[in-house]
Design goal:
7-stranded mixed β-sheet; 3-stranded antiparallel β-sheet; 344 residues; phage-related protein like fold; single chain; 9 helices; alpha+beta
Length: 344
Amino acid sequence: MAFANSSYSDIITTTIESRSRDLADNWENNNALLRKMRAKGNSKPFSGGNLILQEIGYTDPSSINANSYSGYEVINIAPNSPISAAQYGIKQYAGAVSMSGLEMLQNSGKEAFIDLMEGRMQISEGQLFNRMDYDMYQDGTGNASKNITGLALAVPDDPTTGTYGGIPRGTYNFWRSQYYRGVTDGGAAVSSANIQAYMTTLALRCVRGNNKPDLWIGDATYFGFYVNSLQAIQRIQSMSGDGKAGAGFGPELSFYGGGMAATVVMGGGVSGAVSSSQLTSGATAAHMWGLNTDFLFWRPHRDRNFVPIGGERQSVNQDAVVKLFGVAGNMTSNGPQFSGVLIA
């Protein structure tokens, strides 16, 4: 079927293909956690399979063979190989850019058409990024469990139950993340007066050797508490957002509780719908995560990392063309026990 302005149908494809080279970079720069993972080399594409496997090492007390000995004493050489893998589903996201035949005719000048395409792409990209950013804070059960497995399951409010990465937390204690509850554990709701003490306690619970949280992400309320707690000393690292977490997330603050240094950013902003069924955006209200990003990964498929999906699509009974672009992958972890969440 011929388009109303067939000379411009190829421009739709080439425009999206050209922009796809930058889409993955823009997505990883759109979220402070993703930017941190990328800086550490933890954006790792996978090549195939029906699941994403994340290798893990853990301690099984029943198989430990390390011990002291004396002289000719027999050494325990029983097998000790507590190495396994967590498994994560492949989640798919797509955005669409459409153009009707009438719009092609109305914007028949090449420059006008490209300007229209540019605006459509920016809107579609922003909608996709915002939706995925929202889902990165959720538990993956949204939209019939087709969403990213986010922080609400990786570092949940109650880490003693449920299954994450195919591993039941009720059975395997090593797979449990940490948590601190303001009222229950601290005796008072989280506020600017106590948030530093609570963060310090939570951070210390996440430490093993040199493994410790390096990024704190709070919703607007908890981030505001932390900002207010620093007003007297103004411990501001980067007003421009050019520091550890990267441009666009300033002002960045530093946290030094428990003798460790970490970056503190806000995982929220202007509230707005990210889909017809979700009326909020950004980090979950009244939450602040202390994350060790050494153990968190963004795993896109190497052939579906914000690229065009198929060719142009045209309805048999409509004078319009649609082009899809998208990504397939998930957020994974091989050590949720080194991260924690501060809740009310």
